[in-house]
Amino acid sequence: QVQLVESGGGLVQAGGSLRLSCTASGYRFSSYLMGWFRQAPGKEREFVAAISRYSLNTNYADSVKGRFTISRLNAKSTLYLQMNSLKPEDTAVYYCAADKSTVPNTSSDEYDYWGLGTQVTVSS
Questions:
Q1: pLDDT tens digits, residue range 61-105?
Q2: Cα 97–100–102 angle (5° rounding)?
Q3: CB neighbours (10 Å) of residue 10?
Q4: Ramachandran category for residue 101: left, alpha or beta (phi over 0 → left; psi -120 to 50 → alpha)
Q5: Residue 81 and residue 50: Cα distance in Å, rounded?
Q6: DSSP state of 53
């Protein structure tokens, strides 16, 4: 049974940092590229970042470039998202997802497995 479990969310002041983690189980982690998405209240889910199977390629939304860093540790079946210089507009539920494609996708429709999400709230 495939499971993706996010952790590390919380309340932080603008300008602060958080590190999200996503622990995977039930499948071969290194066989899937991984992504982070987020959904703010009243808005559609949007792409944040993605990373290929062996970390050779990454892709970021323009809104987070230079502030967020996606990484993975295949030996621990864990995906990370380091978020720096957080802004109130980063407030959302953050989801990790797994995709069997070979090129990091920005479309949520391409992803096969999803976690339940972790809340990130950035106060001004």
A1: 999 999 999 999 999 999 999 999 999 999 999 999 999 988 888
A2: 110
A3: 13
A4: beta
A5: 10
A6: T
